Amino acid sequence: MTKIFGIIAHPVEHSLSPAMHNAAFKALNIDAVFEKFDVLPEELAAFMSERTDIEGLAISLPHKEEVGQYLDEITDEAAQIGAVNTMYKKNGRIVGANTDAPGFLKALQEVTSIVDKRVVVMGAGGAARAVIAALKPHVNSITIINRTPTHGVDLAKEFGVRYGGNFADLTTETPDIIVNATSIGLEGKDEPNLVPQDFFEPDMTIFDIVYRAQGQTKLLADAEAAGCTTVDGKKMLLYQGMIQFELWTGQEAPQKIMKEAL
Predict the structure, then answer these.
(1) Which residues contact 206 (CB under 8 A, 6 or more apart)?
(2) Catalytic residue at 136?
(3) Which residues, in sequence order, are bridge partners of residue 90?
(4) What pLDDT digit, counting tens, does each position of 178-218 carry?
(5) Cis peptide leading into 196, omega within 30 of 0?
(6) Are 3-98+236-261 and 102-232 the same fold in CATH?
């Protein structure tokens, strides 16, 4: 019987996870399919209770901080982060995990050392939580920049990092690394200048966890034009997806196949 896996998000149409995971299933002759499920926040409880036929889920915004309450168990890492991006079944129980943090860290460390670096994280949602948790043991400092001050302040207190203000306050910072963990750039419409062009320095590393099926986000295009080192969200998607695949199937993820599919 064909096993069903999928991603829940809103919006979900942009997701490249089906291409990546379906290619992996095919390569390893696994009888499974990976689908997209567009789930509104108010539909999450009903979806989780009704779709018991689903073997595993990738969980994207806006559900990462809320989905845990519908699971039997959450890994220590996911509980510490406060966000779940992966659901899998183990010994008859439904388990929540977070593969964003290790996936993000691997993608970033491929291009730069993070030891003692000053980092600005833009955003204060589930993705920002994973980014901050991954970075904190390694870097010199983390500053949160967020549109909604209350969310930014609360997250900064929770993780013991600094809140630096709204997007307009970015220019008072002196970061080595900037991470966009907001959803800005997701749909590619009327993207604002997240970072002023004259603020970029060639020795900065800019990581945009948002990715596009085709081309770059405006943030990465602007950063590349300024000579910065850039990291596309597809790299994080690949690495966190490989961990998901192994949790779901118990088999080693075919990295080359998954990368080519992306």
Answers:
(1) 177, 178, 180, 195, 200, 219, 220, 223, 228, 229, 230, 231
(2) no
(3) 93
(4) 999 998 877 666 677 889 999 999 999 999 999 887 888 99
(5) no
(6) yes
Please determine, for residue 47, whether its predicted confidence score (pLDDT) is greater than 80: yes
- Pairing between strand 3-9 and 32-38? parallel
Q: How far apart are CA 93 and CA 75, in angstroms?
A: 12
136-145 per-position pLDDT tens digit: 999 999 999 9
- Mean residue pLDDT of the chain comes to 95
CATH placement of domain 3-98+236-261: 3.40.50.10860
Q: Can you read off the two tokens belonging to residue 101?
A: 């943090």
Q: Which pLDDT score is estimated for 214?
A: 80
Q: CATH for 102-232? A: 3.40.50.720
Q: Are 17 and 38 in contact (CB under 8 A)?
A: no
Backbone angles phi, psi at 16, to 5 degrees: -100, 0
What the block records as the tokens of 231 is 């990291």
What is the distance, to the nearest Å, from the Cα of residue 170 to the centroid of all Cα atoms in its chain? 22
CA 12 from chain centre, in angstroms, equals: 14
Q: Given the structure tokens 């490249």, which residue do they identify?
A: 16
User: Domain spans of the chain?
Assistant: 3-98+236-261, 102-232
Tokens 């168990």 correspond to 73
pLDDT at 189: 62
Active-site residue, selected from the candidate residues 3, 26, 64, 256: 64
